[in-house]
Amino acid sequence: MFSKAFAPEYQGALSALSVNSSLTDVLETATGQLIAARRAGDAHETARAALAVAEANRRLGHVEAADLAWKTSYRTARSAGDVPAMAWALWSGGTLARQRGFLALAFRLLRYAADLGKRGGDVVAHGYSLAGLAETGRIRGDYEAVGALHDELLAAARERGEARHTVWALEGIAQMHRNSGRYDTAYRLFEEAAGIAAAADDRRGHAWALRGLADIVSVRDGDTARALELLGRAEAGCREMNLSSALAYNHKMRANVLYRAGRYAEALETYEQALGEFRAMGEPRGEALSRLGSVKARARLGADPERTAAELAELGGILDGMGLRHARAMVDKALAELGLSFEESR
């Protein structure tokens, strides 16, 4: 039996905020609380309010403001000797680093966060930081290295009845199965995640699960109409909560679905929309993947092969530099799909 989803990153006076609270509302409320806590000279409450400010800004795509806020939270917590708050601040900083494509920094910050969470006796901070390490490794393509950690975190979340973390773990494991071609297993896991998220009123987790289901329905079944319907439902949830990053990834998936259906002009337009959204929020991984889709769509619409190969070579270098092994393999797959080679770019 799972409890209702909650947001442990909203702490202290902000603990009444819901996991489904609009991020603009969270930012406004947390900023007000941060000002009040500073005036009162309450370092513990200042650190917790700054954490909420950081997380709201990160999810809204305001990366510079998020960077300033998590560092404020950490410095304030350290000055007060508040070890659990230090752990949460580093978790936020590590998550932001991953979002910005700085994977080595993400690993470093999240390892520190996990250690401080354990030392400070904050089981949730420790678990979220381990989850962050697992997700960072998964995004990099280190499935063997982090697969067991995903399984351990899933088992722990199930035992605690913690819906939000259970949904996260199921979606991460599902994504690894999907990327490895095990579509039926991936579908089953995404479906379970969607069910748990819906029952626990975790709209963010539900939107990501619907996106995963849409991907499987498109690539496995070729059911474009159903995939687009699932993405439409997910988009509604993203817009309701102002989830900028999740919405951009939703649009990129919509473009993927259109591309697979041979609707290349529509796919190109949607890839370009997602590209603009990722650039606006400074999210290089999403930007690179959207660019890859745009290049492929333009190639299908008659773009010059040499220019296409040159763009793919450039993207390959970018993804190599970010350490994204699975995404880098997608460039090689695109070359084969389009009948090109890197030599054509020289």
TrEMBL record:
One Pfam family this sequence matches: TPR_12
Signal sequence region: none
Superkingdom classification of source: Bacteria
Keywords, alphabetical: Cytoplasm, Repeat, TPR repeat
GO CC annotations, alphabetized: cytoplasm
Entry's localization field: Cytoplasm
InterPro entries linked: Bac_ResReg_Asp_Phosphatase, TPR-like_helical_dom_sf
Mitochondrion found in the keyword field: no
Keyword Cytoplasm found: yes
Family the UniProt entry places it in: Belongs to the Rap family.
Protein name: Tetratricopeptide repeat protein
Lineage of origin: Bacteria, Bacillati, Actinomycetota, Actinomycetes, Kitasatosporales
